[in-house]
Amino acid sequence: MVSLYAASKKIYPRSVEGIFAYWRWIFVVLTQLVFYGLPWFEWGTRQAVLFDLASRRFYIFGLVLYPQDFIYLTGLLVISALALFLFTAVAGRLWCGYACPQTVYSEIFLWIERKVEGDRSARMRLDDADFSLEKLVKKWYKHTIWIFFSIWTGFTFVGYFTPIRELAMEFFLTQMSSWELFWVFFYAFATYGNAGFMREQVCKYMCPYARFQSAMFDNDTLIVTYDTERGEPRGPRSKKAEVAVLNLGACVDCTLCVQVCPTGIDIRDGLQYECIGCGACADVCDTVMDKMGYARGLVRYSTQNAMDNKWTPQQIWQRLMRPRIQIYTMILVAVTLGLLVSLSLRTPFKVDVVRDRSTLSRITEYGTLENVYRLQIMNAAESVQTYRLSVKGLPGLKITTETEVMVDPAQARWVVLRADIPYGSVEGGSHKIMFEIQALGTDDFVVEKSVFIVPR
């Protein structure tokens, strides 16, 4: 039998210390504090961030959004995409290397694995060893921690869609609904599988960003690079050896840059799509250079133009605001300002007018012609609000039902409304009218169009 797939070896990333590793862990801590802590944060009498799908309301601190506010989600996605384009054009895959959930959770799971099984060589020996009680205990202990952490992650994720305090009480009382239970364990399984087993396979084969990143790179993009001119020819030597006599470059061919790489590539072969720009190879190479007494920066963040032209850091930063970056920045700023202005001018309530289709129109006992409407008033404020209803557009047109409606905080209410005109005052047909809804005590009002039907 001939296999159509190349055999892949398991990658055992080695632990590394350095400035980039330090920043990676800062982002791990910050992102997880936000993710795990935000659902427990209260805003008044409710959860600060809650996407309540059952009632179709989204609470983001003091903001209450309805499905009709989908345009804001679209704006947020556009801003996220533009920010990704901008950051990638400036400094490559910073998102992948430092803040991507796949990278963050892989770092956490790998840290747990190191604490239980040891560093790279110890983990390799343990996997190659025959079955024993020590191997069973370590593997069982590691996977138990992974599973509990994954369940906690899935529980927290669902807590953004169901009030997390209620969810916690249901969890401990074993009263969770089937759907809540399904999604908790679904996301727990996804975290456990992606961060515990698949790891670099997700980045290399499943993530589309790795495939189209080159379209956003140019010769002035900061990427992790190996200084070939300085490092070659590579080769081992003693610390006291004269490099010029041996005709060797600065690279001692220790392969530590490969051992620390989370995707298992050799940065000395040039930039590859598997590189997530985490800088682990730069950290470990600087450590080796320090031990050898050589200058740092054999592997470093730089640009293709800087490597070819031997630019200084000042010259690199001077190329930062090139036309491409300026265009990305201007578009990003414009869209962000537009979204913020739109949110600031947003009326804190919405109205939908639906004409009663069961009855086109009718003559009342008072000799007037009546049309019936249903108004849905959605109060996006955090307090009880009273609204005054009025209508205009035809001579003598008035509302014969209640004209003031009270709606509870962040709630919606349907109101049946009757509008009358004197019979015979308007010719037959469909006539445009406008409903005005005023929030009492404020300057906020909404105008909604509808039609008044007069029989011919």
Question: Would you kindly provide a written description of the structure presented here, covering whatever features stand out?
Answer:
It is a single chain. Strand 3 and strand 4 form a beta hairpin. Strands 8, 9, 10, 12 and 14 form a five-stranded antiparallel beta sheet that branches. Strands 13-11-15-16 form a four-stranded antiparallel beta sheet, with no helix packed on it. 44% of the residues lie in helices and 20% in strands. The longest helix is centred in the N-terminal third of the chain and has 26 residues, at 133-158. It has 17 helices and 16 strands. By secondary structure, it is α+β, with helices and mostly antiparallel strands.
Summarize model confidence as the mean pLDDT.
89
How many distinct beta strands?
16
Poorly predicted runs are none
Distance between the termini: 83 Å
- Strand fraction equals 15-25%
Q: What gross morphology would you assign?
A: elongated
Number of domains: 3
| Rg result | 32 Å
Q: Biggest sheet, in brief?
A: 5 strands, antiparallel
Number of helices: 17
Structural class, by secondary structure, is alpha+beta
Measured as a percent range, the helix fraction is 40-55%
Search tags:
456 residues; alpha+beta; Immunoglobulin-like; 3 domains; five-stranded antiparallel β-sheet; four-stranded antiparallel β-sheet; elongated
Question: Any chance you could write out the topology, listing elements then pairs?
Answer:
Layout: H1 19-37, E1 42-43, E2 46-47, E3 49-52, E4 57-60, E5 63-65, H2 70-91, H3 94-99, H4 101-117, H5 120-128, H6 133-158, H7 164-172, H8 178-198, H9 200-206, H10 209-212, E6 223-226, H11 228-231, H12 243-246, H13 256-259, H14 280-292, E7 299-302, H15 304-309, H16 313-318, H17 323-344, E8 349-355, E9 362-363, E10 368-379, E11 385-392, E12 398-399, E13 404-407, E14 412-422, E15 429-439, E16 445-454
Antiparallel strand pairs: 1-2, 3-4, 4-5, 6-7, 8-10, 9-10, 10-14, 11-13, 11-15, 12-14, 15-16
Helix pairs in contact: 1-4, 2-17, 4-6, 4-8, 6-8
